[in-house]
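Key result, reporting period 2: structure in, sequence out.
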């Protein structure tokens, strides 16, 4: 198997596993893999969104089947999430790759600290 094909397969399996375990947490890892595969920061983030969508649909089916979804809370958060996604998509177009990388790292670091101490 070609090295590039192995990278893509590994990225998919690891991202999918983490998405199933943590929700959409696999998208974070997908971005890191895709940076290396695509060599383009913006395309890595955008392509990770496609992966997250597909992985989340599969995870959603299983989460729903096992009764792990709080439907009321979820439906209340969806409108704000859609607005935020639209704003983020427009900002991605205008942000420099170096700033995007730093911002992504900052958000991950803050998220990690919050998760460790909550």
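The corresponding designed sequence is given below.
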């Amino acid at each position: 198997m070609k090295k590039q094909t192995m990278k893509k397969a590994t990225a998919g399996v690891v991202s999918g596993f983490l998405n199933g375990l943590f929700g959409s947490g696999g998208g974070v890892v997908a971005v890191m893999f895709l940076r290396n595969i695509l060599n383009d920061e913006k395309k890595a983030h955008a392509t990770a969104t496609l992966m997250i969508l597909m992985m989340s649909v599969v995870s959603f089916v299983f989460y729903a089947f096992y009764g792990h979804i709080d439907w009321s809370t979820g439906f209340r958060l969806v409108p704000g999430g859609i607005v935020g996604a639209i704003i983020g998509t427009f900002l991605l177009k205008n942000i420099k790759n170096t700033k995007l990388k730093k911002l992504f790292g900052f958000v991950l670091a803050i998220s990690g600290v919050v998760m460790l101490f909550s």
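Residues 41-65 form the longest helix (25 residues). The two ends are 43 Å apart (CA to CA). This case is discussed further under Risks and Mitigation.
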